[in-house]
Amino acid sequence: MKYIVSILFILISLNYTNAQTKILKDNGAWLTLTNKIKISEKISISNVTQQRRVNFLKNTQGFLYSPSINYKISNRVTVGAGFMHYKYFTNGVSHASINKDEYRYYQDVTVNSMLGNFKINNRFRFEERVIDLINANVTPNVIDGSKYVNRFRYRIQATTNLVKLKNNTFILGKLSNETRIRFAGGGINEPDFDQNNFAALLGCKLLTNSTVWIGYGRYYYKIDASHYVSNNILHVNLSYNFDLTKKA
Question: Residue 118 class from Cβ within 10 Å (0-12 exposed, 13-18 middle, 19+ buried)?
């Protein structure tokens, strides 16, 4: 309970913190492809591939892929585990001096529910992160080892049908917000605000197994004790799923 209260205190204090720090601007666009393969009524495999651009679409800031396996406990609850490789490039207002890599291992629990006409999706994720360390004392800079840190993420999404079109299709709407809390060292000590990601998207089904989303996002993260980066984002997302339980 004390741990939960600490996290809530951090989130409530965020607005106060914002007013005392310099906000850097780093306009970007995130291009995302998600795939889900349904193996059985209980088991599925997913993957996310994403390219993050800055200066709108001019430069690549990061590239990631993230496969995972998921087990459906009930109609409401799914558990999963996965891996992510994130490649950092030397673009953006707070970029590293050279390209570097991060490897993440994660476990999550997703809880779905309905609130009126809205489908509510809550995801709780814990990450184990291995991040390259840059030695800035030599020229040119080089990768010199890595560090291990943990992070907790909580995401809530609300999705609904907005406008009915022909052939019983709809313009979809989605609101999403994810807060990330980082920890000191390799344990779960000294929780501190790390990032907050907000998105407001419009979507439309292209096929029964495919949906495209486009909209606005705000990616806000802490780079040190007194500086934050606020990145206004154009989101373009495409999902394409496969169901192996259906007979051909």
Answer: middle
C-alpha closest to that of 24 among 88, 89, 92: 92
User: Mind listing the domains of the chain with CATH numbers?
Assistant: 2-243 (2.40.128)
Q: How many CA atoms lie within 13 A of 216 on its CB side?
A: 3
Tens of pLDDT, residue by residue over 143-174, are 999 999 999 999 999 999 999 988 888 999 99
Give the pLDDT confidence of 15-58 residue by residue, as tens digits.
Answer: 444 545 567 677 889 999 999 999 999 999 999 999 999 887 88
Burial zone of 25 (CB within 10 Å; 0-12 exposed, 13-18 middle, 19+ buried): exposed
Tokens matching residue 72: 């459906």
